[in-house]
Design brief:
Blueprint: H1 12-26, H2 43-53, E1 57-65, E2 91-95, E3 106-109, E4 115-120, E5 131-134, H3 138-144, E6 147-156, H4 159-167, H5 174-186, E7 198-199
Parallel strand pairs: 1-5, 2-4
Antiparallel strand pairs: 1-6, 2-5, 3-4, 3-6, 6-7
Length: 200
């Protein structure tokens, strides 16, 4: 499955399809209505269908970045999430548009053993499904280049945490406002229990 098949991982189309599917499956009737209209599905039902609908195996475009790039010097090894960029045997950092891959999204790249966690974002990524892989050196960044790779999503991250961080920075940067607006447009369609992320 390719991510461009979707507007985004949690697009309004996926949410609408999940709720519609849930309504059909529940097949509930309103006893007070002579028309036999269906009752809306419960939030719990909708959440369960969304869990099953959320894409797990994707093919995505990836690029690479490093804290050694000139435009990253002022941030050093700090991630947008407020921690330190990771690059070890078990876990590594990645950047993405948080309205598509929210903060805390975890995935594996096919053929590699490490887990990647989305804890950063970048201006050039906003509005795209590209994932930027963190590399500790310029040489390793250049070696990665641009690749289309298969990934397995282990856990979808938190729209709530993404929104909270972006709100505090929205006045400073247009690309942050763009991500924030996209999150706020969809977050109320996502059941409460899924807004802080969930495993696939």
């Amino acid at each position: 499955m390719s991510l461009p098949s979707f507007y985004s991982a949690f697009s309004a189309l996926i949410i609408a399809a999940a709720v519609s599917s849930c309504a059909t499956q529940s097949n509930l009737r309103d006893p007070s209505s002579g028309s036999g209209a269906q009752l809306a599905p419960s939030e719990k039902e909708a959440a369960e269908v969304i869990r099953k609908s959320a894409p797990r195996y994707l093919v995505v475009r990836t690029t690479a970045y490093s804290h050694q790039e000139a435009d990253s010097w002022k941030y050093g090894k700090s991630s947008a999430a407020g921690g330190t960029l990771k690059h070890n045997r078990k876990e590594r950092s990645a950047a993405a548009d948080w309205s598509r891959f929210p903060l805390g999204t975890r995935f594996k790249i096919k053929g590699l053993s490490q887990e990647y966690v989305v804890d950063d974002y970048g201006r050039a990524l906003v509005g795209s499904d590209t994932i930027d892989i963190y590399k500790p050196t310029l040489s390793s960044m250049k070696q990665w280049g641009t690749r289309h790779v298969g990934i397995e999503v282990l856990e979808w991250g938190s729209f709530t945490k993404s929104e909270r961080i972006l709100e505090s920075r929205a006045a400073k940067a247009p690309h942050v406002r763009t991500m924030l607006k996209a999150i706020q447009k969809k977050i109320f369609d996502i059941p409460m229990e899924l807004r802080d992320g969930f495993s696939v």
